[in-house]
Amino acid sequence: MRCASAEAGVAMFIRFQPTIEWVNHFVGWFIPAEMNGDREKQKQAKMFLFSHIFGPFIGNVIPAAIYVLDPHPTYDVAILALSITAFWVFPFVLRWWGHYEALVILSVQNLIFCILWSCYFYGGVTSPTLSWVLTIPLLAFFYIGPHSRLRMVLLGLFLFNFVAFTAVYVVDPTGGKHLPLASLQGLGLVSTTCTGIYVMMMAIYYAKILASGAELEAEARQHLATSVALRQAALEAERAGAAKTEFLAKTSHELRTPLSAILGYSKLMLEEAVEEGDTHSVPDLENIYGAGQDLLKLINEILDLAKLEAGRMELFIETCDPGAIVGDVAQDYIEAARRKRTEIVFDLSRAPKECLCDIQKVEETVGQLLDNAVKFTENGKITVSVEQKITGSRADLVIAVRDTGIGIARDVIPSLFEHFTVSQDSSSSKYGGTGLGLALCQRYCRLMGGHILVESTVGEGTCFTVQLPWKPGENTAEPLPGATQALQFAAA
To answer: With 90 as the cut, is the pLDDT of residue 88 above it?
Structure first.
């Protein structure tokens, strides 16, 4: 039986939960914005608004009962009803005018007036409506909380009204006793019932507000604990990142030492085999040497990526000839392009004579773009151009690598510069690759204050454009001899 009662209570709560939420939302609409930032003031405002929105429904039962019980109702009933109905004005005044403390004083004054007015006309000091006096300190507690100054103001207000009521009652003690004893008893029953309902309603709503506050505090403590855990996790991640970087640096060094020996010996053996005309061994030695080069490139990429992620990568800015840099890098790929019947063409006619940059990082970026272009282009053409781009007071060095290879699918381009991203079609197995090269290119460009762009059409080719500041940290320069005003190339 007890379980059934508990289930019924839970079911009833769930049924009325939307109504409770609607009431909270409706009451909250009247709270001024300046009070929403203070939890204590917000709680007081909710109690004030709840009593003024729903209290008059209960309060107006009293004048209605008087009207029914009094054989000859007069103006006093109408004034009492109007005074109680006036409480509905307060929420709108608070919404549009604010001044919460002033409204609390006016509200308590109106409540005292309603109580003393009904007492004077219906029973005097023995009036059945005198029980409503108990709600005055209760509402004062709900409205102002621990506000001592406002408490003194309300206490003085009550004493003033009590003295005024006493003076009037002494002058005319029989002025308001209209109802017979039986009617007064009926009014007493109605008044006591309404008082009890009103106090219970306010107490329940106050308890709900306290429960909501406790839930918010518990949630805040949970969020605080979560933030502490996240901070601890971040510290652990930083330590793990530092350990990873140190491990990669040491491991890369240990790997590169024997790998350099393997590359050196395989190079010597390849040269000897070529000189001796050992055509049977040359292809195998070329494969060994090429695989060693690929492994060395991968190790260098992983180490550089770890340095970039740890923020330990440094820039070494110096004056250089960008056209010469690109030309020297491209020489390493001419033979590989020739084997794929692909031509590398240079457009250095508009290349400036000098600029400021990190030569090594520019070489690695251009080398990676040329490596990609050669890898994905057969029986085609690769064009490398270098020039200066002037936009207003901004001067940039622009290096473009365009190929006529297989191109890149449109849906792959957004993730092209992510780590370990390679095409998911058949080209990934045909051409290979770790997906680190382009990610490093983008990191290098950002480190130097520039960026890299890509345009591509499947089946027609791809164009990577590297744009770097002419002077890192100072993006203003006069056009140098041979510079052009814009980079011209066909959009893919």
So the answer is: yes
